[in-house]
Design a protein that fits this description.
Elements (H helix, E strand, L loop, with lengths): L1 H13 L20 E14 L2 E4 L3 E8 L4 E7 L1 H5 L2 E15 L4 E14 L4 E15 L6 E10 L15 E12 L3 E15 L13 E13 L1
Antiparallel strand pairs: 1-2, 1-3, 1-11, 3-4, 4-5, 5-6, 6-7, 7-8, 8-9, 9-10, 10-11
Protein backbone atom coordinates (compact mmCIF):
# COMPACT_ATOMS: atom_id res chain seq x y z
CA UNK A 1 0.00 0.00 0.00
CA UNK A 2 2.87 2.39 0.78
CA UNK A 3 4.26 1.72 -2.67
CA UNK A 4 1.03 2.89 -4.30
CA UNK A 5 0.86 5.91 -1.99
CA UNK A 6 4.37 6.98 -2.98
CA UNK A 7 3.51 6.45 -6.65
CA UNK A 8 0.44 8.65 -6.29
CA UNK A 9 2.41 11.41 -4.59
CA UNK A 10 4.89 11.18 -7.44
CA UNK A 11 2.07 11.49 -9.97
CA UNK A 12 0.88 14.67 -8.29
CA UNK A 13 4.31 16.25 -8.02
CA UNK A 14 5.34 15.32 -11.57
CA UNK A 15 2.13 16.62 -13.18
CA UNK A 16 3.11 20.06 -14.40
CA UNK A 17 0.87 21.35 -17.18
CA UNK A 18 -2.00 18.93 -16.56
CA UNK A 19 -1.87 19.51 -12.81
CA UNK A 20 -2.90 23.11 -13.34
CA UNK A 21 -6.05 22.26 -15.29
CA UNK A 22 -9.47 22.35 -13.67
CA UNK A 23 -13.07 22.42 -14.94
CA UNK A 24 -14.69 25.60 -16.20
CA UNK A 25 -15.45 27.74 -13.15
CA UNK A 26 -18.35 29.77 -14.54
CA UNK A 27 -19.90 29.11 -17.96
CA UNK A 28 -23.15 31.07 -17.67
CA UNK A 29 -22.91 34.18 -15.45
CA UNK A 30 -24.84 34.37 -12.20
CA UNK A 31 -27.63 36.89 -11.74
CA UNK A 32 -26.62 40.31 -10.49
CA UNK A 33 -25.89 40.16 -6.74
CA UNK A 34 -26.16 36.36 -6.61
CA UNK A 35 -23.36 34.53 -4.79
CA UNK A 36 -22.17 30.94 -4.99
CA UNK A 37 -19.82 28.52 -3.26
CA UNK A 38 -18.52 25.61 -5.27
CA UNK A 39 -16.24 22.58 -5.09
CA UNK A 40 -14.81 20.26 -7.70
CA UNK A 41 -13.30 16.77 -7.77
CA UNK A 42 -11.44 15.18 -10.66
CA UNK A 43 -8.59 15.50 -13.12
CA UNK A 44 -6.83 13.72 -15.98
CA UNK A 45 -7.27 9.96 -16.28
CA UNK A 46 -4.17 7.96 -15.30
CA UNK A 47 -3.16 4.35 -14.96
CA UNK A 48 -2.81 3.55 -11.26
CA UNK A 49 -2.58 0.25 -9.35
CA UNK A 50 -3.71 -1.73 -12.38
CA UNK A 51 -6.76 0.39 -13.20
CA UNK A 52 -7.70 3.75 -14.74
CA UNK A 53 -8.81 6.55 -12.44
CA UNK A 54 -9.11 10.33 -12.64
CA UNK A 55 -6.59 12.16 -10.49
CA UNK A 56 -8.57 13.20 -7.38
CA UNK A 57 -7.71 16.89 -7.51
CA UNK A 58 -9.99 19.16 -5.50
CA UNK A 59 -10.63 22.87 -5.22
CA UNK A 60 -13.15 25.27 -3.72
CA UNK A 61 -14.51 28.45 -5.30
CA UNK A 62 -16.45 31.60 -4.47
CA UNK A 63 -18.30 33.58 -7.17
CA UNK A 64 -20.54 36.63 -7.25
CA UNK A 65 -22.62 38.21 -9.99
CA UNK A 66 -21.53 41.80 -10.63
CA UNK A 67 -24.12 42.38 -13.36
CA UNK A 68 -26.50 40.01 -15.13
CA UNK A 69 -23.78 39.56 -17.76
CA UNK A 70 -20.63 39.40 -15.61
CA UNK A 71 -19.53 37.24 -12.66
CA UNK A 72 -16.23 37.34 -10.76
CA UNK A 73 -14.72 34.38 -8.90
CA UNK A 74 -11.72 33.16 -6.95
CA UNK A 75 -10.58 29.67 -5.92
CA UNK A 76 -8.21 27.68 -3.75
CA UNK A 77 -6.75 24.35 -4.95
CA UNK A 78 -7.04 22.17 -1.88
CA UNK A 79 -5.12 19.12 -3.18
CA UNK A 80 -2.13 21.27 -4.15
CA UNK A 81 -2.27 22.80 -0.66
CA UNK A 82 -1.80 19.34 0.89
CA UNK A 83 1.51 19.07 -0.95
CA UNK A 84 2.74 22.50 0.09
CA UNK A 85 1.68 24.41 -3.04
CA UNK A 86 -0.59 27.44 -2.61
CA UNK A 87 -2.51 27.63 -5.87
CA UNK A 88 -5.41 29.82 -6.95
CA UNK A 89 -7.20 31.07 -10.05
CA UNK A 90 -9.01 34.40 -10.14
CA UNK A 91 -11.17 35.49 -13.05
CA UNK A 92 -14.39 36.87 -14.47
CA UNK A 93 -17.01 35.33 -16.75
CA UNK A 94 -18.72 37.67 -19.23
CA UNK A 95 -21.60 36.90 -21.58
CA UNK A 96 -20.70 38.11 -25.07
CA UNK A 97 -24.15 37.40 -26.47
CA UNK A 98 -27.36 35.46 -25.84
CA UNK A 99 -30.16 34.67 -28.28
CA UNK A 100 -33.57 34.40 -26.60
CA UNK A 101 -35.20 32.39 -29.38
CA UNK A 102 -32.51 29.72 -29.67
CA UNK A 103 -31.41 30.01 -26.00
CA UNK A 104 -27.78 29.89 -27.16
CA UNK A 105 -25.14 32.04 -25.53
CA UNK A 106 -21.41 32.64 -25.78
CA UNK A 107 -19.28 33.46 -22.76
CA UNK A 108 -15.62 34.28 -22.25
CA UNK A 109 -13.72 33.87 -18.98
CA UNK A 110 -10.26 35.45 -18.67
CA UNK A 111 -8.36 34.41 -15.54
CA UNK A 112 -4.99 34.44 -13.83
CA UNK A 113 -3.62 31.23 -12.28
CA UNK A 114 -0.96 31.47 -9.60
CA UNK A 115 1.01 28.84 -7.70
CA UNK A 116 3.57 29.22 -4.91
CA UNK A 117 5.72 26.29 -3.80
CA UNK A 118 6.29 26.70 -0.05
CA UNK A 119 9.08 24.09 -0.09
CA UNK A 120 11.36 25.80 -2.58
CA UNK A 121 9.88 29.29 -2.73
CA UNK A 122 9.06 29.08 -6.44
CA UNK A 123 6.22 31.18 -7.88
CA UNK A 124 4.48 30.72 -11.24
CA UNK A 125 1.72 32.55 -13.05
CA UNK A 126 -0.34 31.46 -16.05
CA UNK A 127 -2.87 33.62 -17.93
CA UNK A 128 -5.92 31.68 -19.05
CA UNK A 129 -9.00 32.31 -21.16
CA UNK A 130 -12.04 30.04 -21.38
CA UNK A 131 -14.47 30.37 -24.31
CA UNK A 132 -17.75 28.46 -24.09
CA UNK A 133 -20.82 28.16 -26.31
CA UNK A 134 -23.79 27.06 -24.21
CA UNK A 135 -27.39 26.07 -24.84
CA UNK A 136 -30.11 26.46 -22.22
CA UNK A 137 -32.29 23.36 -22.20
CA UNK A 138 -34.93 25.50 -20.53
CA UNK A 139 -34.64 29.27 -19.97
CA UNK A 140 -32.44 29.87 -16.90
CA UNK A 141 -32.43 26.14 -16.18
CA UNK A 142 -30.03 23.33 -17.02
CA UNK A 143 -27.61 23.75 -19.94
CA UNK A 144 -24.96 21.98 -22.01
CA UNK A 145 -21.81 23.63 -23.28
CA UNK A 146 -18.90 23.16 -25.64
CA UNK A 147 -15.74 25.19 -25.49
CA UNK A 148 -11.99 25.49 -25.29
CA UNK A 149 -9.71 26.27 -22.36
CA UNK A 150 -6.56 28.20 -23.29
CA UNK A 151 -3.49 28.42 -21.03
CA UNK A 152 -0.43 30.55 -21.77
CA UNK A 153 2.99 29.58 -20.47
CA UNK A 154 5.09 32.68 -19.79
CA UNK A 155 8.27 30.93 -18.67
CA UNK A 156 10.86 30.02 -21.27
CA UNK A 157 12.02 27.09 -19.15
CA UNK A 158 10.24 24.05 -17.72
CA UNK A 159 11.40 21.42 -15.22
CA UNK A 160 15.10 20.48 -15.19
CA UNK A 161 15.95 23.73 -17.06
CA UNK A 162 14.57 22.38 -20.36
CA UNK A 163 13.34 24.77 -23.05
CA UNK A 164 9.59 25.43 -22.95
CA UNK A 165 8.29 24.69 -26.44
CA UNK A 166 4.56 24.78 -25.69
CA UNK A 167 3.63 28.36 -24.84
CA UNK A 168 -0.07 28.04 -25.78
CA UNK A 169 -1.88 25.11 -24.18
CA UNK A 170 -5.28 24.24 -25.70
CA UNK A 171 -7.84 21.97 -23.98
CA UNK A 172 -11.23 21.34 -25.69
CA UNK A 173 -14.13 20.64 -23.30
CA UNK A 174 -17.77 19.61 -23.16
CA UNK A 175 -20.04 19.66 -20.13
CA UNK A 176 -23.52 19.58 -18.67
CA UNK A 177 -24.86 21.59 -15.73
CA UNK A 178 -27.98 20.45 -13.90
CA UNK A 179 -29.53 23.62 -12.46
CA UNK A 180 -31.80 23.63 -9.42
CA UNK A 181 -33.10 26.44 -7.24
CA UNK A 182 -30.18 26.38 -4.80
CA UNK A 183 -27.77 23.81 -6.21
CA UNK A 184 -25.96 23.28 -9.53
CA UNK A 185 -24.40 19.89 -10.39
CA UNK A 186 -21.88 19.75 -13.21
CA UNK A 187 -19.93 17.12 -15.12
CA UNK A 188 -17.23 18.09 -17.59
CA UNK A 189 -14.92 16.22 -19.91
CA UNK A 190 -11.70 17.80 -21.19
CA UNK A 191 -9.23 16.60 -23.77
CA UNK A 192 -6.03 17.94 -22.26
CA UNK A 193 -3.27 18.93 -24.71
CA UNK A 194 -4.57 16.57 -27.45
CA UNK A 195 -1.67 17.42 -29.77
CA UNK A 196 1.14 16.29 -27.43
CA UNK A 197 2.47 12.75 -27.02
CA UNK A 198 1.78 11.36 -23.54
CA UNK A 199 4.62 8.81 -23.78
CA UNK A 200 7.27 8.48 -22.54
CA UNK A 201 6.17 10.11 -19.31
CA UNK A 202 6.57 9.52 -15.59
CA UNK A 203 2.78 9.63 -15.33
CA UNK A 204 0.66 7.08 -17.23
CA UNK A 205 -1.83 9.51 -18.76
CA UNK A 206 -4.81 8.01 -20.61
CA UNK A 207 -5.49 9.87 -23.85
CA UNK A 208 -6.40 8.94 -27.42
CA UNK A 209 -3.85 7.23 -29.67
CA UNK A 210 -1.03 8.17 -27.30
CA UNK A 211 -1.95 11.88 -27.32
CA UNK A 212 -2.85 14.09 -24.34
CA UNK A 213 -5.14 12.97 -21.53
CA UNK A 214 -8.87 12.76 -20.96
CA UNK A 215 -9.98 14.78 -17.94
CA UNK A 216 -13.13 14.05 -15.93
CA UNK A 217 -14.48 16.58 -13.41
CA UNK A 218 -17.52 16.73 -11.11
CA UNK A 219 -18.56 20.03 -9.53
CA UNK A 220 -21.17 21.13 -7.01
CA UNK A 221 -22.27 24.73 -6.51
CA UNK A 222 -24.51 26.20 -3.79
CA UNK A 223 -26.19 29.49 -4.72
CA UNK A 224 -27.41 32.04 -2.21
Amino acid sequence: MKKYLYQFIGFVLLSQILLACMPSRIVRPLDKGQRALGAHLGGPLIGFAGTTIPMPFTSIMYAQGVTDKSTVYGSLHTTSLLFGVIQTDIGACHNLFYNDSTRIGLSVTPAINMAYDTWEGNFKLWPQIDVNLYWDIKPKKSFVYLGVDNWFELSGKKAHDQAQKNRWIVNPQIGYTNVRKKWNHNIEFKYLVPYLNNEPNSVDYKGINGKGAIGVYISFTRKF
